[in-house]
Amino acid sequence: MKNVAVLGAGSWGTALASVLAENGNETRLYARRLSAVQEINTYHTNEHYLPKASLAPSLQASANLSEVIRRSDVVVFVVPSQALRETARQVRPYLKPNSVIVHASKGLEVRTFKRMSQVLAEELPEHANQIVALTGPSHAEEVIQKLPTAVVVASKDSHAAEIAQSCFMNSYFRVYTNTDVIGCEMGGALKNVIALATGLCSGMEFGDNGIAALLTRGLAEMARLGFAMGAQPNTFVGLAGVGDLIATCTSPHSRNWRAGNMISQGKKLDQVLVEMGMVVEGVKTTEATYTMAKHYQVEMPITEQLYQVLFADKCPRKALTDLMSRDKTHELQDYVQGWS
Ligand SMILES: NC(=O)c1ccc[n+]([C@@H]2O[C@H](COP(=O)([O-])OP(=O)(O)OC[C@H]3O[C@@H](n4cnc5c(N)ncnc54)[C@H](O)[C@@H]3O)[C@@H](O)[C@H]2O)c1
Ligand SMILES: O=P(O)(O)OC[C@H](O)CO
């Protein structure tokens, strides 16, 4: 059992903190709003993010960052990707030297195109070798109900990954280790782009054939970019790749899917993000991925069309026509070598 700090009391941070506390770890959840701290400590609920859910009674919340961090052997960052760098900067002065740093954010920093573990390594250089990415198919709404879930903890340091595995794993939350940090992080980030596109296409009344095509060709372009960046191809057929793609693209729990669906109804992106009231990582990740695909010279037609719809006001139906009428090609033309 460890002393654990969780930063970010949104849906996922609250669900993960509850799992950690239930597993017997002394767990403190950092929330910025005092009202959230009081609600969690008094009623063991977080109604805004996880309506009707009961949290582990031993979970303690606090709005005092230094108090939450100082004694922690494991620090888990669960803030939106664009807030990770700033949060890491605030945390650095209070970290114990050997703490394991876990993050569960799925995105890319839009300003730098960096993955989350790269951002953490830059901001927490003393802990750069102890960083772990937690990812995989995991809707907070299901984890808090103790529905069976399997995730991955990826790290260059297998000892750090095993510490995270032991803290989180229990009878309904199964945790696998992996050393392919690039593949796991890119799988988690890029599936949100495909989920947005799937929500959009479902709203345009695509049938099952079209959705299956979108997921399959989406996975192909996710793997192509990941491979170009140094990921192992097989990671994309694991939990962090196809696993999370299925969960996110087929579930009404997914904020990314729902955001895409709302856009198909003619709503503007800004309005959708306000209505959602929670982070929709796929939006910024589409922006970052569009540029990264050009940088790595990787063809990503679904991402490219989605970018045009989100940021250049392209009509979704025109985007679909353009996607379907590209040049003829072989299905495995651009598949990455080593895919099994
Ligand atoms: N919700 C899920 O089921 C789920 C599952 C797996 C991974 N994730 C990932 O976890 C990350 C967080 O998602 P979420 O669902 O918890 O989001 P959320 O919108 O439910 O909550 C985000 C939380 O972060 C806090 N926050 C926002 N900006 C902050 C800042 N600058 N400093 C500190 N705290 C800040 C907010 O107050 C809020 O408590 C995302 O990257 C998401 O992709 C979510
Ligand atoms: O609700 P979403 O779309 O952010 O997805 C949540 C998780 O990443 C699913 O694994």
From TrEMBL:
Keywords from the UniProt entry: Cytoplasm, Lipid biosynthesis, Lipid metabolism, NAD, NADP, Nucleotide-binding, Oxidoreductase, Phospholipid biosynthesis, Phospholipid metabolism
One cellular component (GO) term of this entry: cytosol
Record: residues binding sn-glycerol 3-phosphate: 106, 136, 138, 191, 244, 254-256
GO function terms (MF aspect): glycerol-3-phosphate dehydrogenase (NAD+) activity; glycerol-3-phosphate dehydrogenase (NADP+) activity; NAD binding
Catalytic activity: sn-glycerol 3-phosphate + NAD(+) = dihydroxyacetone phosphate + NADH + H(+); sn-glycerol 3-phosphate + NADP(+) = dihydroxyacetone phosphate + NADPH + H(+)
PROSITE patterns with a match to the protein in the record: NAD_G3PDH
Active site: 191
Residues annotated as domain Glycerol-3-phosphate dehydrogenase NAD-dependent C-terminal: 180-320
KW Ubl conjugation (keyword) present: no
EC main group: oxidoreductase
Entry's EC annotation: 1.1.1.94
Residues binding substrate: 106, 255-256
InterPro entries named in the record: 6-PGluconate_DH-like_C_sf, 6PGD_dom2, G3P_DH_NAD-dep, G3P_DH_NAD-dep_C, G3P_DH_NAD-dep_N, NAD(P)-bd_dom_sf
GO terms for biological process, alphabetical: carbohydrate metabolic process; glycerol-3-phosphate biosynthetic process; glycerol-3-phosphate catabolic process; glycerophospholipid metabolic process; phospholipid biosynthetic process
The keyword Cytoplasm appears for this protein: yes
Domain Glycerol-3-phosphate dehydrogenase NAD-dependent N-terminal per the UniProt entry, residue ranges: 3-160
Entry superkingdom: Bacteria
Annotated metabolic or biological route of this protein: Membrane lipid metabolism; glycerophospholipid metabolism
Residues noted as binding NAD(+) in the record, renumbered to the chain: 8-13, 140, 255
Pfam families: NAD_Gly3P_dh_C, NAD_Gly3P_dh_N
Binding site for NADPH: 11-12, 32-33, 49, 106, 140, 255, 279, 281
Subcellular locations according to the entry: Cytoplasm
Entry similarity comment: Belongs to the NAD-dependent glycerol-3-phosphate dehydrogenase family.
Protein purpose: Catalyzes the reduction of the glycolytic intermediate dihydroxyacetone phosphate (DHAP) to sn-glycerol 3-phosphate (G3P), the key precursor for phospholipid synthesis.
Name used for this protein in its record: Glycerol-3-phosphate dehydrogenase [NAD(P)+]
Gene, per the UniProt record: gpsA
